[in-house]
Amino acid sequence: MSTRAGPVYEVTLFVGRDDVAACDQWLDEHVRATRQTADVVACHVIVIADYDAGRAGRVCQYQLANDDVLDKFLEGTGDLIDSTVAARFGANGQVHARLLREDLAHDRPLSEQPVCLNCGSHLRGQYCGHCGQRSGSRLISLWELIRDAFGDLFELDSRLWRTVVPLLSRPGRLTHDYLQGWRARYMPPVSHVSGHKPDFLCGGVF
To answer: How far apart are the first and last CA of the chain?
Structure first.
């Protein structure tokens, strides 16, 4: 049975290693104050362990009472987070936010759930969990196509540059991170043409 909970506003923070103590102290005070408001049902912080050698990550999740308080929350607490991180941590601080909602697809009868046009599996989101095809098609402009094609080349924080720089300067570190399972921050490995076994070109042979 669904709880029909309000949306979750999730904020991911990245700060320099030297700012971790100050960030944690500020987050503790911020969470205590936020829990006192009627619009927020729950608030807690999750530590992102060993995200990056130069930065530390924290995830702060706010369970809102309902959709009616969302705009008020974004204009108040949401704006406060961005301005506070910029004021306290400057260029070392980064903020990414997203809105999460409860998945109510399981409440629908099976006959009413949409199916993937490619493999026929029942869909539970934007992409098919069986074959990976997108649930719906959309027309994109030429500008969007160009932006997506060249975006990784010009974004300094993109996975391309986060892979190329250590590949050229410290290939052993790249291999170590890959073997430890820290792979999402880097470009995916290159596959053999004749097979599907990954061959990661970073100073080691697998």
So the answer is: 47
Q: What is the CATH number of the domain that holds 55?
A: 3.30.70.100
Locate 2 and state its tokens. 């669904």
| Number of domains comprising the chain | 2
For 127, residues 6+ apart whose C-beta sits below 8 A from its C-beta are: 133, 134, 135
pTM of the predicted protein model: 0.51
Torsion sign across C-alpha atoms 26, 28, 33, 34: positive
- SS3 (DSSP) at 121: coil
Q: What share of the chain is helix, strand, coil (3-state, %, to 5)?
A: 40, 20, 40
Amino acid identity at 133: Q
Please indicate, yes or no, whether residues 12 and 94 belong to a single structural domain of this protein: yes
Q: How does pLDDT run along the chain (206 residues), one tens digit per residue?
A: 344 568 899 999 888 888 889 999 999 999 999 999 888 999 999 998 765 667 888 999 999 988 889 889 888 888 888 888 888 888 888 888 898 876 655 556 666 677 888 888 877 667 787 787 877 666 677 877 777 777 656 665 567 777 888 888 888 888 887 787 777 777 776 544 444 444 444 444 33
Distance CA 189, CA 37 (A): 46
